[in-house]
Every structure is written in C-alpha cells, then in structure tokens.
C-alpha cells in the first residue's frame, strides 16, 4: 500500500505518521511506501521508509508531483487553521481551497483512484443551531475556514461520485488536549486550560464557563482517520462527508474533570479573562452533534472528558499525573 | 450606475440586457455604463451605450479586465448548463467554479464593492427530499453543475461577510418556457413540450407525466435579478443565498394548461418516449419549494402554469396563440 499524507508536519499528521510507522500496515495491508508533504519538512518516522516533499500544495506542479507517487491511500490533512484563515484571507483560500482543488485534480489526472480521507471540520456549520445538530443539518459556515472546508467537502463528494477518487470527509470536532504551544485556532483555549495548568502554568479562559463544545482526543482523531481509510465504501453511500462523534461538555465540566483527575491545585491556574473577539467567534460555534451516521459506521470517540484528559497524560506526559509542589 | 453582466449572450442575459436598455435605470438610478461579457459576442442593446468583452472568464487577466470597469452592480449569469457540466467535467469546473472564483477575486482586488447578483440553481439540492423543500434544507448536490453552483454560493456568502462584495445568490427554478432551440440542460423538455407544439412541431417527453417540478418564466427570472439588484441588504441578513419561488406542477398539469390556452391540437404533438438517461437525472431533482424567505423579501413568480404559457406567447410569439391549421 502506497500512502500519501499532506499536512504531515502538523499535530495530527505527526501522530498519524507515528502510528502508521508503529503498525506497519493499514487494515492488514503492509505499507510499501509513504510520502509525506507539508510546508515545513515533516519528521521521518522511525522504522518506516518515507520520502518527504516540502512546499506549497497550490504551487505550480506541486500537486502533480504528489499524484505521480500514485498513492492507494491519501490522508489530506493540510490546512491553515480557523484563526489564521480569518486573519489572512488570501492564505486561507490558497491553502485550504486551492491546495485541495490542485490535489484532487492532480489525483484525477494521475488516475490512481485512491481512497482519500479528508480532514474537514465542524466549522462547516454556522449558528443558529438546534440543541443537538443532526447529520442532515444544513451547513452555513460563518468563517472563511468553514467555507473553505465545506467547498472541499463538496468537491470530494463530486470527485467521488464521478469515480475519480474514493473520498471520505471527516468533520472533526475540536481536538483536545492539543499538545505543544497554542496554534492560531480560535478553539485553542479548550486545550490550554487543561494542558497549561497540568504543566504548572497559568491559562487564560476567554469565554464564559457555560460554553458547551464537542471534543475528541488527538488519539481519537487518528483513530477516525485510520477507520475511514479501510471503511467499506458501499456502507457509506453517496454522502461522503460525516460528522464525527465526540464528547460534548461545558467549560465548567472540563474544569471539573481536570479537578477529578489532577486535584484542585491546577484549577487555580485558570484565569477567567473574557475576550470579546474570541467570544464573537465562539458564540456562533456548534455545541452538540448527533453524529449518528458516523457512530453507525463504527467511528468511536471518548465517552467522557476525564478520558480525554487521561489520554493526554498517557500520550504526552509519560502517564504521570503531575503533582502540585507541596 | 455602472453595470457588468456576465453570460450576457445567454437566454436570460439577453432578456436582462434588453430590459435594462428599455428602462434605462435600476431602482431609479440611471445606467451610466454597461459592460457585457460572454464567450460569444453579446448583442448590443438598442438605445443604451454598452461595451462588450468576449472570452473565457477563467482565463489569465480576463476577470481583472472586467473588474477594472469598477461596476456598482454585477449580474453574474455566466455558466455552463447542467447537462454540459456533467458531460464535460473540465469545462464545467473551469467556467462554473474557476470563472466565479476569478470574478469574485478580481472584484475584491479592484475594491469597487458592487452589489453582485449570482444566478445559482435549485440543482444545489439533491434527493432524498421532503414533499416541500424548506429554505434551510441541507444542500447535497448530485451533479457537478449543482456542486459548482453551491461552491459559488458559499464563496459569495464569505466574500459578502468579509465585506468584499454585497452578494445575493438566487437559486433559480427551471426557467420555462425557454425560447429558441434546446440547450444542453437536462431540463430542456419541460420547455420543449410547450414551445414545440405551439409552433406546430413534435416534442419528445422523456419522463413520466407524473413528474412534478417547479418553474418560472424567463420574464420572472429577469424580475428576480432586478429585484435582487436593489434589495435592502439589511433585510436579507447573513444568509445571502435564496431559493426563488415558482409554479410547482406535474408534466400532466403542464400539458393540461397548454390545452386550456391553445386548444387540444398541440397536445397530439407531444410524444412520450421514456429515456432512462434523462430519467436517471430528473428523478433526483427537487419538486416543490417553500421559498418563504424569497417571498417575504418580495420576489414574485407566476401563480399558474397557464400564466407561464401566456407569457411565452406574449414575449416570444407576438401575443398570438397559434391556431391549428383547419
């Protein structure tokens, strides 16, 4: 099996590549070759021969170079995040829309007809929302990022219907707890209020604690991608874009879960500092999803926010719950 | 007022331009300059100074040339129709998607911030449908044409939200009765079964007479475009794409209306010749629309199919109901 990963240097990309390297196969098919692409050089995974290509996917010839690899499986994760796509209009369209257009078109022309797993986002939905968003809720994005991701979904569905790709789009919920430094996603605080206090650092909470949002761990996100890679196309049907499941909790519940896992001390490091600019974005975000189709197709996320925190501790902190200095 | 019309040589484009020329103003603002664009040279309207530009909107520099005109009002009608976009994948994406992308982006960069009226289509919707399709029904196109039109809608909404355009997208129902020769739209028979018998020629009906579909006359379509040109943006709100009203009738009801208007003789010229290829497309088409938002905003179509036939006779046949040779 020949696998191409775009956005391979990103947080999810790195974790996906590490898991591919650790397992050596996808759905029982050995990985014969792996091609990694990103705007910065992706790290080569240990134990698996991988080539890498660095550059702008929307640039002349870039997508054709990737398509010439003739992948059987593509994970298209490359993208500029929500905050950045809103701040830099041209960059967002270039990467998220034109990069996707270029990749799909190059794959069509190369004719290797890969299964293509596309990282979309719940940002395709815009307010007003019902209490629980059903799978057939009409998407009206309220950000450029959501617009670009939804245009990619439509393209994926049409390229699949026409027989050029075998695409599956996954509307990922907010991935939490993100390791490392904050990125430019407006949703970053959902992670930082867990990650930073666990590391003994202060975190700022820019929205009211009543805000409800849906989360899945980075480990669950990689699980979604790998499950989509091997899913029976006949089971999916004509609507190739699926809202992924997750854990819907309020910020207050997030914080209570942190207290149950790591004690009361980290909670004092969360500082409420309402930010009208962040709130203006977050107040239009969806809260809860039915995700019925995805669950029926076997996509599984965590079942509690405590589990999400414990996965962060296991995968990022060596399994050690930090103890407050006494 | 400076007005740009793309697709000006098309059926609706020609009728729009003729009406602009006849009225000399839009919403009371005199037309100072008119620029017409199409892939073939649009006819200059009588009584109004108009420039015209011929070429491929997605070609290098083409959209920038149009944007340099600095329009206050744009009617973006250019497009490859449904049957052609399905038959020629590359042409459909080039004209319907990349032409639209190029135009919007050139207008953004030129900065004249026009009101832009975009001809979208009910093809953005795909089966299965409820009996009456509400305004917030989720669009899942089942054709490349519908996909391309919906991508344009999303772009229009985002460019408007960001303040680069003041866009309104109109999801037009099937325009009926189309004058002239059939085009490559799969919906062409809805018109030809009226137009051809009225002209004493045979027409082929490729689908069952039970098929229900929503129609508006070419005159109503021009009315939609002009109403959208002057509508108060504050009244529209953030969701800038509107499903237009129309007359929902079965093919049998169409034919009965023809009988009431023109007598029984033309009806004998309609030959049922089921075509599985056409049926495969048409059976997934939407039937009835609520069009509540559009009606509330003052968009008005005909109220009966007889009225649609009488408009065809008035506008195309000099007001004369043809009499069968006795």
TrEMBL record, chains A, B:
Keyword Manganese set for record: no
Family annotation (Pfam families): Epimerase
InterPro entries associated with the record: DenD, Epimerase_deHydtase, NAD(P)-bd_dom_sf
Annotated NAD-dependent epimerase/dehydratase domain residues: 3-202
Keywords: Carbohydrate metabolism, NADP
GO molecular function (one): oxidoreductase activity
Domain of life where this protein originates: Bacteria
Keyword Aminoacyl-tRNA synthetase: no
Protein name, entry field: NAD-dependent epimerase
Species the sequence originates in: Aureimonas endophytica
